[in-house]
Amino acid sequence: MPKYLAPSERSLPREFVRSPYFPSAPEAAVILESIREAQLEIDVLSQNISDLQEAIKRLEAQRARAETYTRFQQSLLAPIRKLPSEVLAEIFLHCIPRIVIEGAVKNRPMQLAGVSGYWRHIIQNLQVFWSSFPHILQRTPLVRQEFPALRSLRMHSHTRMMNVIDAFELAPQLTQLYLGGFGFESIMNSLKLPWAQITHFKSYMNRIWLENIRDVFDAMPNLEKFESI
Questions:
Q1: Is 135 left (phi over 0), alpha (psi -120 to 50) or beta?
Q2: Rounded to a whole number, what is the distance in angstroms from the first to the last CA of the chain?
Q3: Hey, what domains does the chain have and what are their CATH numbers?
């Protein structure tokens, strides 16, 4: 590897750089050779740094896999695994009220169901969780799933929904619906619900809604009670 000379080892001291001195032809040749050697060393060092950075990335990935494996193994020893499903269900029942985090309404059962498949199975079989469901739609809606015990659904949207929302389409007992923050166009084009089952409907009504109210009622042929805000 070419040896990169420190300034004190150069044929021309640093003082010349700060002066109006202009090197002679022989001195210029020496300077050019020195620059060439230094550039070669820069290239070698840059490649070495790149190789080390790639090695660090591989080591970090290996460490991340080891950490994930360790967490999974540790979770197998968690004392909560000793609790029977009946006890877990009783604990989950204390989480029915919805909570507010950073201004966004979230439903605690859905959070618990995301912990593991085992917890999700327990929660989905507790009908008291799903008889009434408050939900504020965010830009990323819930994943489509079955809600066999859902009877009452309250939904509110703070944003314009760009995608089809079908999270609550499979709810065979859903009969009561409250909607807020939706426009007529967004609800009819984006919100997939078992509309024909709805018997009680409550919603904020604006001018666009009123102009298309017939289409809304046509989608709910079994409607018994309607309230507007």
A1: beta
A2: 81
A3: 7-75 (no CATH), 83-228 (3.80.10)
- pTM for this structure? 0.46
| Tens of pLDDT, residues 5-59 | 444 454 556 677 777 888 889 888 888 888 898 899 999 999 999 999 999 999 9
Under a CB-based contact definition with an 8 Å cutoff, are residues 169 and 144 in contact?
A: yes
The answer to whether 112 and 92 are in contact (CB under 8 A) is: yes
Count other Cβ atoms within 10 Å, centred on residue 147. Answer: 21
Q: 148, 172 in Cβ contact below 8 A?
A: yes
**Among 88, 98, 173, which residue's Cα sits nearest to residue 131?**
173
- The predicted-structure confidence for 82-114, as pLDDT tens digits, reads as follows 999 889 888 887 776 543 333 344 556 667 777
List, in order, residues 6 or more apart from 218 with CB less than 8 Å away.
none
